[in-house]
Design brief:
Chains A, B: One of its GO terms (cellular component) is aminoacyl-tRNA synthetase multienzyme complex. Two copies of one chain form a homodimer. By secondary structure, chain A is α+β, with helices and mostly antiparallel strands. Chain A has helices at 17-27, 44-63, 77-80, 84-90, 116-126, 171-191, 238-243, 267-276, 305-318, 332-341, 352-357, 379-404, 412-421, 434-444; strands spanning 31-33, 40-42, 67-68, 74-76, 95-100, 103-111, 135-144, 158-168, 198-201, 213-220, 226-236, 246-248, 254-256, 258-265, 293-297, 323-325, 346-350, 359-364, 370-374, 406-408, 425-430, 447-451, 471-476. Chains A and B meet through strand 2, helix 2, strand 3, strand 4 and strand 5 of A and strand 2, helix 2, strand 3, strand 4 and strand 5 of B. Strand 5 of chain A pairs antiparallel with strand 5 of chain B.
Chain lengths: 479, 479
């Protein structure tokens, strides 16, 4: 059967997962490399997915009262250096502009690796009183962080993201915002991308440069590695003090603001690929798929077939579906395999016999199953229902995979054995000492992904050092 | 009357138009300056207008078959140098990255001043046959051009824009695309921004670096200066030859593609401000206004007033209007002046007496006129109708101003006299010699804005040199 035909050009996942990943990225035309290492081209099919993510998240941000702004791309080096931890974290990754026009600059400028410093400088100018608070700003942009090892969408010297930066009159409100935005990310992953996340707090050594607390959501890839997919930071008053962002509180006293920032990036595209894809290529969650239904005319040279295909396209478009007709001069078998490789959730086949019978055949990318649908006025809403079903099935499948790959280690030997044989997440009790994290990382390559404060301790000793341990921590190898 | 109160902090237009402009930009919180000259902060109220423009244009682009992509922010210097005219035009304006991470780069990288070179390099890789054509790509991003003299929105070292880059199998198709996109810009200006444009072709000396032909739309500001507000370029095969972008045509022969590019930027915000604004501040065209209706409760401490205001807000939001309640602790008079300064098209006043009578008062920002509206289910649709009326009135007013400020010069003396006393556009017959343009520019500061090939010649001699002239050209002082 054509739709089960293996796509020869894509490496099988179990043969070489890294190769499979880049094969899919390029063959499905999600991206291409540019002449500068680590700077990729987001091709239409990849960018369209990012646009769906943007649309979904931007709406949520605005519903919660956030406003979009745009800050300059360049940051004076002196400004970046105002918060000590922050500059220490980012200085080694900066791209530096030293010439503007034909002249050497008086002060070097850094292409934003993130924009905390710019937001702080601006906030210090525009905030005077508690009446001016909160400020709930967000921006969509690209940032540059010089990376040595790069992979499409996962780690690049330039990537697209949104960065929210908010300031508040109270610690309580800022902490609430931090967790609220983590939940926006988590629910976006679930509702739009059909990806179940693990959420929690980062350890001291893994948190953001300058943050008091960093919360993260982590997705589990098919190869058992974790992917940090969105973070939300509580800054306390650290940046506010460094940048002198003060306000007159209700008691008429000067106080520093309480701050958050939160970001999610085109890494999410990498998560979609590696959570859902299979050996035939992409498998796209319907709500983020640029094309949800590919109509493939069978025997398209026969009179009426192409007309019917376009008529169906118009009908389904009017029903709010993202739909396309593949009217190229390729064979149906080729078109089936191509739609499959691109991960299009639903393929609609229509040929002379179907038209005669007033029906069409609909095939699901997820499992290859086929069903006959009547060509009536309800076709659009039936496909909507089918797409929702597919979304739920994809989420359930990914959730099962994730849950099967969370394992508990009571001893370090157990930890290492799990890591070597099965990968996935490893739950371990932890003493909260950086040294134990560092040892695990050095010995095994696994890192702490997050502290699960919502999980009951299942022991009271850290298996690494033997000291008392109160926290459940998830470890994993990660991208 | 409060709504006629002059806003003291804004300089009158006739006293100092440049000062008026920056006063409005800052007081209405459209932008703020950053620590780097020429790099501005787009504040929420300014950015929200850009978002409206993006939404409107992006929809049109997609309806015409264009797809969005994202190209890298950095261009290797060697790539930028491949097309001779292009590099000559842009090299003096480039911001150059010489360090990445902690190392000096082997090759300097330029922050994109525009992305023709990147698109060409990519197209060369992905296009093989006429079946791959056309490629109709667009990207939304910011670009950097080092400018010595900068003004918010009008000329900055960084600005936001979209750049469309298309390639075609035939010259005819590419030429059609060039004009089609100019028309998209022109109609966007008319339908969304209520700005009448003058459109035409740029002279050789004013065209884009590397283009065969540049088409432009020009808006006329209140001070009689023109503002280039969007351009569309036909490249022929120039870039294709420099970057080797070839395809196998239907006759099975290798041929270079025919190319276009077109861009519109946040300059359009400058046009909105300077075309429509008055001495009290902004006057925003309703379709681009971030807030279309500001509800001002009168005697808001009285029971039921604020509730009614929020109830109306919900009703009007549900009717698809962008609406806000000003529930701050300021006086109604202050709120009226503030809404006026921010250019909000319609103010809705609601107080205890209005509620009693089941009515509200609606004031138009454009002319200060007030009318009473019944508080019934039709209020939303009535305000929609009113906003459409306001749009039409604003367009008609701007069109009248534009048309009154197009004057014809038969002699150079006449030209200079018009320029000194009245400004605006000056129509002149032109010999097509760069030298005459250059002389005008040197003598008067006015530049050719565009060749009006759709206008009948009204003479046959160039007033500058006395040689034969066939082209009607519009000159003006310009931003």
């Amino acid at each position: 059967m054509a739709n089960n035909k293996k796509n020869d050009a894509i490496t099988a996942r179990d043969v070489d997962f890294a190769k499979w990943y880049t094969d899919v990225c390029r063959k499905a035309e999600l991206m291409d490399y540019s002449g500068v290492k680590g700077f990729i081209i987001y091709r239409p099919y990849g960018y369209a997915m990012w646009e769906q993510i943007q649309k979904h998240m931007d709406k949520k941000f605005k519903e919660l009262g956030h406003e979009n702004v745009y800050m300059p791309m360049l940051i004076p080096q002196s400004l970046l250096q105002k918060e000590a931890d922050h500059v220490e974290g980012f200085a080694p990754e900066c791209a530096v502009v030293t010439k503007g026009g034909l002249d050497d600059l008086e002060e070097n400028l850094v292409i934003r690796p993130t924009s905390e410093t710019l937001f702080c400088e601006h906030y210090a100018k525009i905030v005077n009183s508690y009446r001016d608070l909160p400020k709930l700003y967000n921006q969509w942009c690209s940032v540059v962080r010089w990376e040595k090892t790069t992979r499409p969408f996962l780690r690049g010297s330039e990537f697209l993201w949104q960065e929210g930066h908010t300031i508040h009159a109270t610690e309580e409100e800022a902490r609430k915002e931090t967790l609220q935005m983590l939940e926006v990310y988590r629910s976006t992953a679930q509702d739009l991308l059909a990806i179940p996340m693990v959420t929690g707090r980062k350890t001291e050594s893994e948190k953001f440069a300058g943050a008091e607390e960093t919360y993260t959501m982590e997705a589990l890839m098919h190869d058992g590695k974790a992917l940090q997919s969105g973070t939300s930071h509580y800054f306390g008053q650290g940046f506010a003090k460094a940048f002198d962002v003060k306000f007159l509180n209700k008691d008429n006293k000067q106080e520093y603001v309480y701050q958050t920032s939160w970001g999610a990036s085109t890494r999410l595209l990498g998560a979609i690929i590696m959570v859902h894809g299979d050996d035939n290529g992409l498998v796209l969650p319907p709500r983020v798929a640029p094309i949800q239904v590919m109509i493939v005319p069978v025997m398209q040279h026969k009179e009426g077939v192409l007309d019917k295909a376009y008529e169906l396209e118009a009908q389904l478009k009017a029903a709010g579906l993202r739909v396309k007709v593949d009217a190229s001069d390729k064979t149906p078998g080729y078109k089936f395999a191509d739609a499959e490789m691109r991960g299009i959730p639903v393929r609609l086949e229509i040929g002379p016999k179907d038209i005669e019978k007033g029906q069409c055949v609909i095939a699901k990318r997820l499992d290859g199953s086929k069903e006959t649908y009547a060509l009536d006025d309800d076709l659009g809403s039936k496909i909507h229902t089918l797409l929702d079903q597919i979304h739920d099935e994809m989420y359930a499948k990914a959730l099962k995979f994730r849950d099967e790959n969370i394992r508990t280690a009571h001893t370090y030997d157990e930890f290492k054995e799990i890591l070597e044989t099965k990968a996935g997440y490893i739950r371990m009790m932890w003493c909260e000492d950086d040294a134990c994290e560092a040892k695990i990382k050095e010995d095994t390559g696994a890192t702490s992904r997050c502290i699960k404060e919502d999980e009951e301790p299942f022991g009271d000793v850290c298996p690494i050092c033997g000291k008392p341990a109160k926290k459940v921590v998830y470890f994993a190898k990660a991208y």
